[in-house]
Write a structure and sequence with these properties.
The complex is a heterodimer of chains A (about 700) and B (about 210).
Chain A (H helix, E strand, L loop, with lengths): L12 H6 L6 H10 L5 H14 L3 H7 L5 H12 L13 H4 L4 H7 L1 E8 L5 E7 L5 H11 L4 E5 L2 H11 L1 H15 L11 H20 L1 H32 L8 H6 L8 E6 L4 H11 L9 E8 L3 H9 L6 E6 L7 H11 L4 E4 L5 E2 L3 H12 L3 E10 L6 H23 L11 E4 H7 L9 H11 L3 E11 L5 H22 L3 H8 L1 H33 L10 H28 L12 H21 L47 H11 L15 H4 L1
Chain B lengths: L15 H17 L7 H21 L4 H23 L2 H17 L4 H17 L1 H14 L4 H8 L23 H30 L1
Helix pairs in contact in B: 1-6, 1-7, 2-3, 3-4, 3-5, 4-8, 5-8
The chains are: A alpha/beta (about 700), B mainly alpha (about 210).
């Protein structure tokens, strides 16, 4: 189909019929039936669902697994009166491609292919689109190339994505890694320390050394006093925030009645990002875990973000034969190889109005998407993110999982709730953060240089005048059950907190002006105070040990009152930690865990070990992403995934799927479709269709 | 036939009939149970009013601050202890415990009676229907039925008769939980114990 330049453009009859980017449902249904890929009964059912849910007919039949993507696009091309082409990335003219930004093409799902001569010998740009050919595309092409004639052919959205990942690979990676650092360097952790921070640290160090030489007693007094004051403030702040959170435990942000009142037709498209790396064993669980989500499948888009250098996970994902709502996005290799980098690539391809991140082993509450949507609607236009609570399904696996669960219960049920009520900046948790997609893009996405990109994003959103809220829904995750693995994970989190503090205190006055004094104090004491507490704890314990074993041994160096204050600080801090864990375990009705709260001081000493590791890494390897191994829990029934040596991927049987709301009904054909589209070598890609449209022949 | 305990975990080797009964019980709880709604604002206002009156009266009669605070703490302990026990509001336990700690600071000898009271309240939590209701509600809302349970229930058109409250055979008194009692005791007793320990520790450090 030709759609010419704006001034000369005349929408084709097909365009007028289709209305927007979607085909007229009756027409598409008829075509699919005529082509023999859909029965009359299926069409009637699909039309009813289309009416009920408000999703395009194509999405309905695709989500139900009644047609393959290829069959659907053959039908759509017929409805739109355009040629169908399967795009091979090698056919894309790279010089032409450079004129178009990848992010725009990913959002609008079309790619320019080449410049050719039309029947009159005039140059025309050939464009492959996964939507209805439109004057808008023609307009953009003319603006960027100066060539007034545009021919639009139809291709699948997966072909568009594959072309983007291949041809625009460098740009996608560059944007994912450097967009924030280039656009707003002050907000990126790509620079660990700025020179005023270095100067301040050096000055502090020199002053301490000089003071110790000239007046050791006074210097020790100042040092210990400052640490104690900071720890007391940090613990006090956490206690205050959590107490406010406990006071709101009976408040439901979103009620079941509000969820029940939602109509499917008013639901927007929701994108779920699932970054996975070296976790082949648990990819098969993903669909089972997300299957319970109460959201129309036709309006769900799941992007499985895999890394290029992780063929085992890719093979496992393909072998799992996910349904068509799952798109596998292979993230090109680059450094730093972090989760936020993968999420940024996923964000470029996201088409949902809202986007959420889950880990592959996550088990969100069924109504979480609906509750989040309602929370957004109630929260106002400045609400950029809704954070659901996280908790663990394998809490009783060992002592560490018990302690971890108590800590998470306290953090998500009380501390975040308190931050929300006090309108303080909320550091987001690792997953289950729901965003308005457009606002997230405006914010610059995640910072790939920050190893707690989620916490950073929450603070950045607040600094830009947006708001983050919590919602009364829970996602169950797998608690880390091995101490070494736990320390790796925790050291990354603490290092990320340190990075976040360093980033957002580069311009303290600017931060103060933008978020206000209360929020600045809350941020400094909670995010900055947390690593400080962990770093200071061993020293306070050491003072306690010395004072118990050798009474009065510290008094020559420190005044008696300061020693007592230090011990009181330790006692109060541990009391707060124990009690918050105790209360949180009780609130979650995990009564069996509650007595373990008494062991919290020991658990928090592990944090101190992790914090010193984090501090060391911040200095020597700031961007290193300590990978947490998932899938260790015996609660995860990992399916056997055929290895790559078991035979061609296309011949592997699809594993048995659970029958649930969002039924996983992938067929072998769909699996082949996935393989063909993800792996260009699996099935030969046919060349673009010859130029045979009636218009062109004329 | 006794209905399955919906709050218990279904045995892996349960028969289809047991699975169906279990699923049915959980469905009933999910639809019929709601957490008790305690008007916390009223509770707080009433406490504030009582404390205010008590403080004014005692101060007017020239009593010491100790004498003013003592009954105040007692009022708070009783009020929030009852809300915790009967209303199933966790944070009320925090408030009751904090008030008990205040009482221990005033009267260190009150520790043992307070622990006894905490134990009684904890035992009350073991039989108070509010906790079973809130547990059922929470379990149903935050831990969805498994696919097998849903399928088992779907085979029979289940109509929930709300007028009957807890359905046949499902009695709340069956849901006594010892772990709940122990946990409740810890919530109530932690503050006074910590306060008593702090007093003892300070005293011990000074006497060394």
């Amino acid at each position: 189909m030709k759609v010419s330049a704006p001034r000369g453009a005349t929408p084709s009859p097909a365009s007028s019929r289709a209305g927007g980017r979607h085909a007229a449902p009756e027409r598409l249904g008829t075509v699919l039936v005529e082509q023999g890929v859909l029965t009359e009964e299926q069409l009637a059912e699909a039309l009813a669902q289309h009416e009920r849910v408000g999703a395009p007919l194509g999405s309905v039949v695709l989500a139900r697994g009644w047609v393959t993507r290829r069959e659907l696009y053959v039908g759509l091309a017929a409805v739109w009166g355009a040629d169908l082409a399967f795009v091979d990335p090698v056919d894309v003219d790279e010089e032409l491609a450079r004129r178009f930004p990848a992010a725009m093409l990913a959002r609008e799902t079309w790619v320019p292919l080449r410049v050719e001569e039309d029947g009159d010998g005039l140059p025309q740009v050939v464009v492959a689109t996964a939507g209805r050919p439109s004057a808008h595309i023609a307009e953009v092409v003319v603006q960027r190339t100066g060539i007034p004639r545009v021919r639009q052919v139809v291709t699948t959205d997966w072909d568009v994505q594959r072309a983007l990942r291949t041809v625009w690979r460098d740009e996608l990676v560059h944007d994912a890694v450097n967009a924030l650092a280039e656009r707003r360097p002050d907000e990126s952790a790509s620079t660990v320390f700025v020179w005023p921070q270095v100067a301040a640290a050096v000055a502090l160090f020199l002053a301490t050394v000089t003071g110790l030489v000239l007046d050791p007693s006074l210097t020790m007094l100042v040092l210990v006093g400052t640490v104690n004051a900071a720890v007391a403030l940090a613990v006090g702040t956490k206690a205050l925030i959590s107490t406010v959170g406990t006071a709101w435990e009976t408040v439901e942000q979103v009620t079941a009645a509000e969820v029940a009142a939602l109509q499917d037709a008013e639901l927007p498209v929701y994108t779920i990002l699932v970054p996975v790396y070296k976790e082949a064993g648990i990819v098969g669980l993903l669909m089972r875990n997300l299957a319970d989500l109460d959201w129309p499948r036709e309006k769900l888009e799941i992007l499985l973000l895999l890394e290029e250098d992780d063929p085992e996970t890719l093979a496992a994902a393909l072998a799992a034969a996910p349904p068509d709502i799952v798109r596998i996005v292979v993230v090109p290799h680059s450094l730093p190889k972090t989760k936020p980098r993968a999420c940024n690539v996923g964000l470029a391809f996201a088409r949902g109005e809202y986007v959420v991140i889950y880990d592959a082993e996550d088990r969100p509450d069924a109504d979480q998407l609906k509750k989040s949507l309602i929370a957004f609607r109630k929260g106002g236009d400045d609400l950029v993110c809704v954070q659901a609570a996280l908790n663990y399904f394998n809490a009783r696996e060992n002592l560490l999982t018990r302690m971890f669960t108590l800590e998470y219960s306290s953090w998500f049920d009380y501390t975040l709730a308190g931050l929300d009520k006090l309108r303080l900046p909320i550091p987001l948790g690792g997953t289950s953060n729901h965003f308005r997609t457009d606002m997230l893009r405006d914010l610059g996405g995640w910072d790939p240089y920050n190893v707690t990109e989620d916490a950073d994003l929450g603070i950045r959103a607040s600094a830009r005048g947006h708001r983050v809220a919590v919602v009364n829904s829970t996602t169950y995750e797998e608690a880390n059950m091995a101490v070494g693995n736990w320390i790796r994970q925790r050291s990354r989190w603490i290092k990320g907190y340190m990075q976040t503090v360093l980033v957002h205190t580069r311009h303290p006055w600017r931060l103060l002006r933008s978020v206000g004094p209360r929020q600045t104090a809350g941020f400094a004491l909670l995010i900055g105070g947390t690593p400080l507490m962990f770093l200071a704890a061993p020293w306070l314990y050491a003072m306690l040990a010395v004072e118990l074993l050798w009474p009065g041994a510290l008094t020559p160096a420190l005044p008696e009152w300061l020693v007592q204050v230090s011990l009181a600080n330790l006692l109060f801090g541990n009391g707060v930690i124990i009690y918050l864990s105790l209360l949180a375990g009780f609130k979650r009705r995990t009564y069996g865990l509650v007595p373990f709260a008494l062991l919290s001081p020991l658990y928090w000493l592990l944090h101190s070990i992790a914090s010193y590791k984090a501090l060391w890494q911040l200095l020597v390897n700031p961007f290193y992403w300590e990978k947490t191994n998932h899938g260790l829990s015996s609660h995860l029934q990992v399916e056997d995934v055929p290895s790559m040596d078991d035979g061609p991927a296309t011949e592997r049987p699809a594993p048995a799927q659970t029958t649930t709301t969002m039924q996983v009904t992938a067929t072998t054909q769909a699996a082949r479709d996935v393989v063909r589209l993800m792996d260009p070598h699996a099935v030969p890609v046919p060349p673009p269709a010859p130029d045979t449209s009636p218009e062109d022949r004329a | 036939m006794t209905a399955a305990d919906p709050l218990a975990v279904l045995r892996p080797d349960a028969s289809p009939a047991e699975a169906e009964s279990h699923a049915e019980s959980r469905m009933r709880l999910a639809t019929a149970a709601g957490p008790p709604r305690v008007p916390m604002r009223r509770v707080l206002l009433t406490c504030a009013l009582v404390l205010g009156v008590e403080a004014v009266v005692l101060l007017a009669t020239d009593r010491s601050l100790h004498d003013v605070l003592l009954p105040g703490y007692l009022v708070l302990i009783v009020a929030f202890g009852l809300v915790f026990c009967l209303g199933a509001v966790t944070v009320a336990g925090f408030a009751a415990g904090a008030a008990a700690a205040g009482l221990v600071v005033l009267e260190p000898d009150a520790l043992l009676p307070l622990l006894g009271g905490a134990a009684l309240l904890a035992l009350g939590c073991g039989v108070a229907p509010g906790w079973a209701r809130v547990e059922a509600w929470q379990a149903a809302h935050s831990r969805p039925l498994t696919a097998e349970e849903e399928a088992a229930v779907a085979q029979r058109a289940l109509s929930v008769d709300r007028s009957r409250g807890w359905s046949r055979g499902v009695r709340l008194r069956n849901y006594w939980r010892t772990d709940r009692v122990l946990a409740a005791f810890l919530v109530l007793a932690f503050h006074p114990l910590l306060a008593a320990f702090s007093l003892w520790f300070i005293d011990w450090m000074q006497r060394r």
